[in-house]
Amino acid sequence: MNKTAVFIDIMSIQKYIFSSNQLKDNIGASHIVESIFDELKEKFQCSYAGGGSALIYFNTITEAKNAMKEWSSNLLQTAPGIVPFITIEENFDTSTYAESRKKIIKKSIKQKNEFIPITALSAFGITADCPKTGLSSEVFCEKCADQDISYLSSVSYTKILKAEEANNKIINYFKDILNNDDNGLDKYEFPDKFDEMGGTKGENNHIAVVHIDGNDMGLLFKKQATEEEMKKLSAGLTDSVKSSFKQVLQKLIPLIDKLKRNGEITLKEKPANNGKLILLPVRPIVLGGDDVTFVCDARIGLWCAMEFIKAFELQDICKENKITACGGVSIVKTNYPFYRAYKMAEDLCNTAKKKAKKKRRNERNEIDNSAADSYIDFHISFGGMSDSIDRIRIKNYKSADNKLLYKRPYKIKEIPKLLNCIKKLKEKLPQSKIKKFREILYSGEIAAKEFINELNYRGNTLPAFSHSDEAKKGFSDDKSPYIDIIELMDFYPLSLILKEDL
User: What does the alpha-carbon distance between residue 174 and residue 243 come to, in Å, rounded to a whole number?
Assistant: First the structure.
């Protein structure tokens, strides 16, 4: 059966969501993107919608054009800054759904390549600049008193307005976890500021930006031959992502008291009608589709990423394929430009995905899904470095004899061994020796071997991650895991290293 179909793709979603250094703005922007197709889904037949794209059916091309004119006009007022790309296909054959969907997406890509971007003036000489976006300040913001701001651009203002709505929605979804009080009152709440993630007063506090993406999800969607299969997979994926994050919270909350007692994490509190609320050290920003982004206290970033992926792997999304995911954990200071921190997390996720794909290739250079595994890559920004992760590692993670001073990304199953090395190194060597060992590693294998021989002479041995050579000369296969281990020491609480990790 032929129908008129419209494919809508929102452009530059990541920049729209993550461009602000205020967490509340990011939360509101994410909610705007998540709910952007709600009006169309209510009025018209929707094949699928989510992740910044939608496929909608209409009876005639005239109806489709009129609907898009009305919707895009409303969008200018309710979600300024959002740029939709609309493609219309008059003869969409639903009986060959997969082929028709492929055709309209291909048409959309072709149109995008031919599209000449609109150049808009960010501001005019006679107007004040918005302190958040650099655009013209247009709206008085009564909700910005805590930020010492009076006027904002309409783009920033709508994000702030939607943040409260987004907060209510996510609190309602995780109500059974947040209502962790004997009297049924809220005990926990999600923070809406980066400096509410925890940390220690007076110190250079860090947050972790975590980006996780499912492996080969695009191929999985392409395999869906019918519209019903597509809808089922899309809904199942969204439910699985939320369920996985819920499981992370269920594991984290019982550990909070232990982390606090050991001084490994500090939690912020806020007054409430019936006492006080504990602000959780984690906050989801994007929680739907096949990719996830959340922020948390830097000291639980790797743990949260690992627990999320482990929970995601167990979800019943597709019985025919093993479901895996890769993650990037970008650890930065709280005042670091957030969009750059997000892009770093995304780049780290991509390096993890490249390694996962490489490991799945068999001897015939074919993809073997039975060998699929999940990987995590991480980076800790100690300064203001803004290069790509590849360039940073070329410049800063090579020894004098041209050996690699990192083994990242790591397979999820390998991380417990890495944590075991952290624990053992902390137990065996004082901080001064660990610092000295880090410096020696940059001199190369010969210097590292001499240092290790001296340690051995004094009765100390290094823990080996994957090969006994590491404990003897600091390297194996021209790579060393010890910089990874040393950098993680301050960003992974010993309380989270369980007995089964050892």
Answer: 10
CB 141 within 8 A of CB 151: yes
Q: Map residue 489 onto helix, strand or coil.
A: helix
**φ, ψ of residue 210 in degrees (nearest 5):** -115, 125
Q: Average the pLDDT over each of 135-149, 300-314, 318-332, 341-355 and give the range with the smallest value.
A: 135-149
Alpha carbon distance 446, 461 (integer Å): 17
CA pair distance 223, 219, nearest whole angstrom = 6
The span from the CA of 491 to the CA of 316, in Å, is: 32
Where do runs of H (alpha helix) occur along 23-153? 23-34, 38-43, 61-78, 97-114
Q: Check: CATH 3.30.70.270 for 2-114?
A: yes
| Domains 2-114 and 191-393 are alike in CATH topology | yes
Name 295's Cβ contacts closer than 8 Å, sequence gap at least 6.
23, 194, 197, 207, 208, 209, 210, 282, 283, 285
CB 360 within 8 A of CB 40: no
Report the chain's terminal Cα–Cα distance, integer Å: 60
Whole-structure pTM value: 0.92
CATH superfamily, domain at 191-393:
Reverse transcriptase/Diguanylate cyclase domain (3.30.70.270)
| Domain ranges within the chain, ordered by starting residue | 2-114, 191-393, 415-501
What confidence tier does 118 reach under pLDDT thresholds 50, 70, 90?
low
